[in-house]
Structures are given as structure tokens and as C-alpha cells.
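New to this. Please check both lines:
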Amino acid sequence: MTAAREPRASSGPIMIIGGAESHGGDDQILDRFVELCGREQAVIVVIATASVRPHKVEREYVKALRHLGAGIVEPLRLETRAQANEEHAINLLNRATGVFFTGGNQLRITQLLGGSRVDTVLHERLARGLVLAGTSAGATMLAGTMITQGNGTRVSPKTVRTSPGLEFVHGLLIDMHFAERCRLTRLLSAIAQYPHELGVGIDENTAILVTGTRFEVLGTGSVTVIDAGQATTIDTPANEHGPIALCDVRLHVLPAGYTFELNGRCPQIIDTPN
């Protein structure tokens, strides 16, 4: 039997978004982020490092967040490790009440920011209550272990590839666009290799808001939680193409109106959505 570690945020709160969140109309996820950041008093920094089209992505998010009433929204262009160590970036992050990471390629974020002054300052500010959010690739890298690729249809080691994340949240292994891209086998394959982590698959236009040792589900889709902490069998084949055996793994599917207690690893209903 595997001994589970208790997941938790590094403080925060931290908003982890499954991608394709609404930017006009039902903006409940981004609206909640703006509210947490202070609305009219907010100073929000948008980081599009993951994107190959940062100008376009920055404009979209700056416009959306300002439309929701955020006081100040500024992009922070970080395309080199030198930029991630510049005083300008540090000064801006020290003024911020919230930071938003966009989607793209999560490896760009970890390779350009990992170990930099920006990385250090973000962890320091998060511990003092900075609101941190990420969507798609910008969400995956928030964990200590991040999924980087994989599209297989069977639960096997070959189905998934992982890499170290920036570990703003501890003990979670996150996957994005979950229902839309049929990623259950991918997350199961990852959890078989990291059974001490709690697998969290987040649908599009859906998010979890992690505060301390609890998360709340937001948005229009569902969050799938995979808990292998009490699994009785995890058998990974020597051949990475072979199937993995998983026995007594717990699975929860949670829509908005549910929370999940990370300490006890159990869901709770807090509201019944209309």
C-alpha cells in the first residue's frame, strides 16, 4: 500500500484552469480571479512566456481582465533567462496583487523561468498571499511534476511523458483539456508512476481554486480526481508499451459546487449549481 503525501498550496490562493476559459459572456473564472486580486485595486501581471505568439495572447488577456474591472493589468515579456533576472521584472512582480500565466508550451516556462529571480520572487510573494493563476500549459507547470506530452489510448508508461514543474502547489499532478481531449488514460498512466501525487484532470472552462489544503471547483465542466494513495496494486511493466495494472484506485468527478479536502482526500458538496 502506498503512503500518500498531503497536497497543499504554497499559500496563495492558486487558481488552476483547464484551458479555453470564457473571455466574454460567462466569465465566472476570470471574474473570480479579478475579485481575488482586488478588482479596482488590482495590479495584475500577465505572463505569456509559454506562447509562441505572446503579443496576441497578452492583448487578449489584458483586454479581458480590464473589461472585468481590474485596476491595472500589465504584460511582462519574459522570452530569455536574462529577462527573467532583470530588475524591471522583479519590481513589477513585487507590486502585483495577482499573476496570470497563459497557455502554450509548459516547457518554455520551466526552461526560461526555473531557478531565475522571477521564479524566486514568485514563490516568495505567493507565500505572502499573492494570487497566482495559470491556464492550460500555464496551469500544468504550477505543480512539482508536470505532464508534457502523451496521447495513448491505453494505460501504459509510453502513454505519458513528464518533467519537473515549478512547484507552486505541492502534491498535485495536473492535466488540462481533460474531457475534451480524452486524457483519462494519460493521467492514470502518470499517477501509476507518481502514486504519491493526487491526479487532477480539469476540463475546459473549468478551474480549481486551491486555498491551503482545500480546492473549490469553478466553471462549466468537471474536475476528475485520481487518488492512488490507498492502491493495493500498481504493476508497471518493464516494456514501456505494456499495460499497467492499477487496483483499488479511487476516482471522483466533481462539478462546480464541490470542494475537495486535500488532507483527508475527500470531496464535499457546498452548493447545488442552478
Notes: The mean pLDDT is 95.
